[in-house]
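Lab notebook page, bench 4
Experiment: in silico fold of construct C2
Operator: M.H.
Input chain length: 274 residues
Purpose: comparison with the prior construct
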Amino acid sequence: MPELPEVESLVRGVRQELVGKRFADVSFLRPDVREVIPAARLKDILVGETVTEVTRRGKYMLIHTNKGALGVHLGMSGRFVGASKSALLVAHTHARFEVNDGLEYRFIDPRRFGRLFSLEPGEVGSHPFLAKLGVEPLDPGVDLRGVLLEASRNRRQPVKVFLMNSEVVVGVGNIYASEVLWRAKINPHTVVNKIPVRKFIEISRQIIDVLSEAIKAGGTTFRDYRDKDGNPGYFQENLAVYGRQAKPCGRCGSKIVKTTQAARSTYHCLVCQK
């Protein structure tokens, strides 16, 4: 599932292309994806209106006009890609957003776990999909160490599960949590309220570093994720532990092991990560 780096890479590309342009038309090829699409409200927000900004909150891309915003969640297999209006439609195209210069964006989602929804002006902080989201780890004003430390003190759960809780901090998905903890030399099964205070400095630093590096690489693509031009991300080439079961640890040479936490695969080094 696309996480913060993938969505941020998409947002940056769409922002560069869309801000200042108008939507000429919007059409939906089915009434729902994961949920019913508010087609009439989205047309009112978008058609004939100028895009004022494209932002991200957690894993959601938000395309703003003066009347509100289009919210896009890619789910497990969704894509939001640019195309010529005359280009043939590919299978599982569920929506078309035509811009006033002949370009259009298409929302494609084979598994239909994605979302297309509307936001009213000023609703970003209160919309049901967004209201409970935690801090943005890359925001310069966020004391990430302080947030993580305070949230961890009354929790008896593995640190990796804790880091993946989007109500604490957004964007540290399964892949990135494994990479962060390898870099910080912490066993992902360690109970989070047993981790020394000083270690949260390193965890916070590695969250920022890993996510920033992943954004520069365009995100991570194993199967479905593509940017707005249809290109995959390349951060998977830099992964130290995720997906590397039985391969040597790049730090000590010991074999990487695979375990399961909260029904998700976890990868770590038994020697380096105590």
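Observations: Residues 179 and 240 are 7 Å apart (CA to CA). The first strand starts at residue 23 and ends at 28.
Next step: discuss at group meeting.
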